[in-house]
Amino acid sequence: MPITEFLERNASDFPNDVCLVEINPEIKEDRRVSWKEFELIEPNPKTSYRREITWSVFNEKANRFANLLIQRGIRKGDKVAILMMNGLEWLPIYFGILKTGALAVPLNFRYSAEEIEYCVQMAQVQVLVFSEAFISRVEEIKEKISKGRLLIYVGEGCPEFADDYHSLSANCSSQSPRMILSDDDDAAIYFSSGTTGFPKAILHKHRSLVHACMVEQNHHGQTKEDVFLCIPPLYHTGAKMHWFGSLLSGGKAVLLKGTKPEFILEAASKEKCSIVWLLVPWAQDLLEAIESKRVNLEDYDLKQWRLMHIGAQPVPGSLIKKWKSIFPHHLYDTNYGLSESIGPGCVHLGVENIHKVGAIGKAGYGWQVKIVDEHRNPVAQGEVGELAVKGPGVMTCYYRDEKATEEVLQDGWLFTGDMAREDEEGFLFLVDRKKDVIISGGENLYPVQIEDFIRTNEKVHDVAVIGLKDQRLGEIAAAIIEVKEGLWMTKEEIHEFCLELPRYKRPHEVIFARIPRNPTGKIEKPKLREKYGTMDLIAEQTT
Question: Would 280 be classed as within a structural domain?
Fold first, then answer.
């Protein structure tokens, strides 16, 4: 069955139940405003901008947009791109696209105009839906992408080169177009995060999306009463596939714009959130805010918060141990996945395995895993190799890139490019990205292992380890370190701290700087290698 049937079911079974809430703490409102079917409530100048939507209105909005697309000639198999920040309109537009039988193509909101043009052309997009934050970028490329394509604008003040979403969809039928869809129909194209090169177009069928729903609910046990706090961008598989647990259970989700610790705690408290998915930097910031007394937990009602989980990147065991010391009643789970495996869940720790924090876990619901050598033969337990996964959520292909597809897909197995090892209990530990491994003097260095150790230093806020060229050793490890706000640190301190590491794992160079991360929390190591790879490093002391 297609994933759109879950939405139809919820609209029928829970028509008047709130399903989505949008909160923007940066905007303060002092009046009650009704906008279309969306309602701004809590008219208090001290509260955040808040809108909510019910399941019936969600479905009606999706139907209206589907019928609008059909009126404009969109047919099954066409592609419709979404270039929007998180908000109440995002998911109804996504499901409206799916209801036509077209493919949804979510785009990264950090893309430059050039990257937007590339993705639109690569995915053979017929319609681009965009919002206010992207007017200038779309205008820059409109002459190149508007020929034969429809540009639809979501928001106030529609630019003259686009059609207005609200006025057009308001006049369309709110009834389902009743397109016949199956599990085998193509559903979406997601673009890879681009941390190891230019993004690739990843094709998924409805089967993949439905399996993501099943995986999420199986792992985290969402019920109708659960409230999911969603902070990461919806264009990425991670946020959306975790939300799929709410879709399957008919529960409520809160879309929070902003990642400050006080924003997260306030939203969790006021909206009675029971499940919160964080990225490592946000969890770090929250813990630091609590430890520094910048926020006081007694100011918030968090007794209903039952689960915190993290994914999208390696998770330091020290972070989770500290989290559990502050929130001992929280269940915790680590989620591992790729956009090629429809996001999180192909491997997960499991809330019952808190004693194995540091591992990414075991094969997720409906998934198989193995670790292989360079010839793709299984390695012995305990040895490092490339992680491969297999299951109903594996992508169909890299769209229009047969060569890249053949490199990572074989007999239904997806070769992830991540290096891992399996311990004696069958738990998988992520060692590093295959392309991030540093070969120094013939030894393989895995940056994640060095990063995890350095993060245990109380002065370190964030760290990234990259390889720099060296005439004698080939490569050396360099640690880029972001120090906690208000603290002071020297290179000598780090070198002394790292004496506990084996000599070959100790970083040769230390650089104090901010760590760039993409919207899904992954360290942007290509940027760091580009910036520091050819520089002459100067000894210094810094904060």
Answer: no
* Mean of pLDDT values over 365-394: 95
Tell me if 112 sits within 8 A of 120, measured CB to CB.
Answer: no
Domain encompassing residue 157: 4-258
Question: In terms of domains, do 339 and 458 share one?
Answer: no
Whether residues 254 and 187 fall in one domain: yes
Question: Does 463 share its domain with 505?
Answer: yes
Q: Write down how long the chain is.
A: 543
Predicted confidence band of residue 418 (pLDDT cuts 50, 70, 90): confident
Q: 188 in a domain, yes or no?
A: yes
Is residue 138 located within the same domain as residue 106?
A: yes
* CATH code where residue 415 lies: 2.30.38.10
Q: Band of the pLDDT at 315, cuts 50, 70, 90?
A: confident
Asked whether residue 21 is assigned to any structural domain, the reply reads yes
How many of the other CB atoms lie within 10 Å of CB of 147?
7
- Give residue-wise pLDDT tens across range 259-308: 999 999 999 999 999 999 998 778 988 999 999 999 999 999 999 999 99
Task: Report the 10 Å Cβ neighbour count for 534.
Answer: 9
Instruction: Report the alpha-carbon angle 190-195-200, nearest 5.
Output: 35
442 shares its domain with 428 = no
Do 157 and 27 share a domain, yes or no? yes
Q: In what order do the strands lie in the sheet with 18-28?
A: 34-35, 38-40, 48-54, 18-28, 252-256, 227-230, 275-278, 307-311, 331-338, 343-348, 362-363
pLDDT of residue 317: 78
Interhelix angle 237-249/206-220, nearest 10 degrees: 70
Distance CA 26, CA 50 (A): 11
Long-range contacts of 44-48 (CB under 8 A, 24+ apart): 48/23, 48/24, 48/266
pLDDT at 382 over 90: yes
Query: Which residue in 252, 62, 312 sits closest to 173, CA to CA?
Result: 62
Q: Is residue 290 part of a domain?
A: no
Of 445, 452, 393, 450, nearest to 419 by C-alpha is 445
Q: Are residues 429 and 442 in the same domain?
A: no
Please say which residue of 409, 433, 457 terminates a domain: 433
* Residues 64 and 197 reside in one and the same domain: yes
Q: How far apart are CA 255 and CA 25, in angstroms?
A: 11
Q: Which two tokens stand for residue 81?
A: 């791109």
Q: Which of 273-287, 384-398, 435-449 has the lowest mean pLDDT?
A: 435-449
If one counts the domains in the chain, the total is 3
**Euclidean distance between CA atoms 198 and 209, whole angstroms:** 24
Angle ∠(286,292,297) on CA atoms, nearest 5: 60
Does the pTM exceed 0.70? yes
Compute the distance between CA of residue 273 and CA of residue 253 in angstroms, rounded to an integer.
8
Reported for 443-451, long-range contacts at CB under 8 A and 24+ positions apart, including other chains, are: 443/504, 444/384, 445/477, 445/504, 445/505, 446/384, 446/419, 447/477, 448/314, 449/505, 450/477, 450/479, 450/501, 450/505, 450/507, 451/314, 451/316, 451/479
Instruction: Examine the fold and report which residue of 222, 238, 258 is the final residue of a domain before the chain moves on.
Output: 258
